[in-house]
Design brief:
single chain, alpha/beta, Serine Threonine Protein Phosphatase 5, Tetratricopeptide repeat, 3 domains, 5-stranded parallel β-sheet, 19 helices, 43% helix, globular, binds flavin-adenine dinucleotide
């Protein structure tokens, strides 16, 4: 039986800058890669959504396919196993004598349990865990693991006083040939949903996208000015899908950003992108620190609030028919593409949690299902923040979704793209069609309640003042 070391892939589906692969290679044994499908992802949550919806499935499938090909060029077989950990371990043990496991630290409890069960079933005691997901290493900032400040700004300022980012790890050279075995890849229930998905999976596309955004279109140089817009692909970096599956290492993004600053320009936009990446790290470390409290209705602050279980409101969200154009347009985009901008996410989350007072976890589960870039820490961390049960010190902050539309979609182009029924209305009527009087309805040949739904709630906090 062949003695090997096993690299356990989850959200690190790439070859470049891969701590697990590098550490495993240093141990000298031939490497096999394993991707164990998390079967919980295919189950429904209490809110009725399958955790991993179709957009994410396709993105994952494409990324795994490419990883398999890329690892094969290094003679590393990738075995994709879609079965429970015990039978996956039994299968592997028929062919390999596994000496050690290298894996990335996962802050999610389900991911941790999956790995623990798998390790136990394999009977391997040597498990090496690597902080692959974040940009900053706790080796450079030990306090990230122990005494993370309760406010993001405090953490950021501490980091900015002495920035340290690990250099990129070298690419592996091929190992001597090692025989693989039949896996479950070809029987995965994932299928080709769209000929032209919103974003293609795989490390190659992710690296190309990075090059494009940074060096070809140079859109990164105007990031700060455009990041709050919702309409155009280049408005923000769109790096989150690649980061969610680890198709790009955050350190690669950082060092390429440094290269932009050295060779093109250093400006407020390049700073702001770095700043945003720190949010991702913050939620990663916060999640590690807080564990399952990330999923409690009372949040990490143990905040008691009156949450509603209102089927009519939930249905309006699911049908993108709340009667609030900015909310409905963003929900439509999410349902039709798997994407929603940060501006959209903030507004929709605030509306669900603070105006409708629906259990914020309903919204989080909805996003988990649809978002192509779903990341457990960023999603649940941001939802808690917006719902007022997380780290946001501005507890009473509510987004006025109508005012936000007026501010960030000034000409109404975004809303018209996703809600063509409103296209005939001029701004600012477009932002609150329920205010049209009889005369205006006649002029614009538009009837509220027929062409577009009446608002499900009337609340001055989400309407324009006269
Ligand atoms: C309710 C809600 C749910 C969210 N769920 C997710 C999620 O599941 N996965 C996810 O990656 N992001 C999530 N975000 C954060 C943010 O909306 C996305 O990271 C961002 O919209 C991705 O687009 P981009 O890559 O173009 O971002 P850019 O604006 O270009 O930012 C660059 C990168 O910085 C990081 N980043 C930016 N803002 C945040 C933030 N608020 N929190 C954490 N990281 C951030 C992301 O990695 C992003 O790719 C959520 C935000 C909200 C308000």
């Amino acid at each position: 039986m062949k003695k090997v070391s096993l690299v356990y892939f989850q959200h690190d589906l790439r070859l470049h800058d891969h701590p697990g692969l590098t550490a495993s290679r240093q141990r000298g044994l031939p490497i096999i890669g394993v991707y164990l499908c998390n079967q919980l992802e295919m189950q429904s949550t209490t809110f009725g959504f399958q955790k991993m919806g179709n957009y994410r499935q396709q993105f994952l499938y494409e990324s795994l396919w490419e990883l398999k090909q890329n690892l094969a060029t290094l003679n590393i077989p990738l075995l994709v196993l879609n079965r429970d950990p015990q039978s996956a371990a039994n299968l592997l043990k028929t062919k390999y004598d596994i000496a050690s496991i290298d894996a990335a630290v996962e802050p999610g409890i389900e991911e941790q349990n999956l790995l623990k069960t798998f390790q136990l079933a394999l009977g391997v005691s040597s498990l090496y865990l690597h902080h692959d997901k974040p940009l900053l290493s706790p080796l450079d900032y030990p306090w990230l693991l122990k005494t993370l400040p309760g406010r993001f700004t405090d953490a950021r300022m501490k980091i900015e006083s002495a920035i340290k980012v690990m250099p990129l790890l070298p690419l592996l050279t091929p190992q001597p040939f090692i025989e693989g075995m039949e896996d479950d890849f070809s029987t995965l229930p994932f299928f080709k949903l769209q000929e032209k998905p919103w974003m293609k999976g795989g490390e190659t596309s992710a690296l190309e996208h990075l090059q494009n955004y940074f060096f070809m279109t140079k859109s990164v140089l105007t990031y700060k000015e455009t990041r709050n817009n919702m309409l155009h692909f280049a408005d923000s970096s769109k790096l989150s899908p690649a980061l969610s599956l680890g198709l790009l290492s955050p350190r690669m993004i950082y060092w390429q950003l440094k290269r932009v600053e050295e060779t093109l320009k250093k400006n407020q936009s390049t700073y702001w992108l770095w700043f945003e990446l720190l949010w991702r790290d913050y939620f990663y470390y916060l999640h590690l620190q807080q564990g399952n409290r990330f999923f409690l209705i009372t949040g990490i602050m143990n905040t008691k609030k009156h949450w509603q279980d209102n089927a009519r409101y939930q249905q309006a969200i699911l049908n993108a028919k709340t009667g609030f154009p900015l909310v409905d347009a963003n929900l439509k985009e999410l349902y039709q593409t798997g994407w929603m901008s940060n501006r959209g996410r903030q507004n929709v989350a605030s509306f669900i949690a603070k105006i409708l007072n629906l259990d914020w976890r309903f919204g989080a589960a909805l996003f988990e299902h649809y978002l192509i870039d779903y990341d457990v820490s960023s999603n649940y961390g941001n939802w808690q923040y917006l719902a007022g049960v997380g780290v946001d010190p501005r507890e009473d902050r509510i987004f006025n979704v109508t005012l936000q539309a007026k501010k960030y979609d000034q000409k109404g182009e975004y809303i018209k793209t996703w809600l063509p029924a409103l296209a005939k209305l001029p701004v600012p009527l477009l932002f609150q069609p329920w205010t049209l009087n009889g005369l205006e309805m006649g002029i614009y040949q538009f009837e509220i309640g027929k062409d577009y739904p009446n608002p499900i709630v009337r609340d001055a906090r989400v309407e324009l003042k006269d």
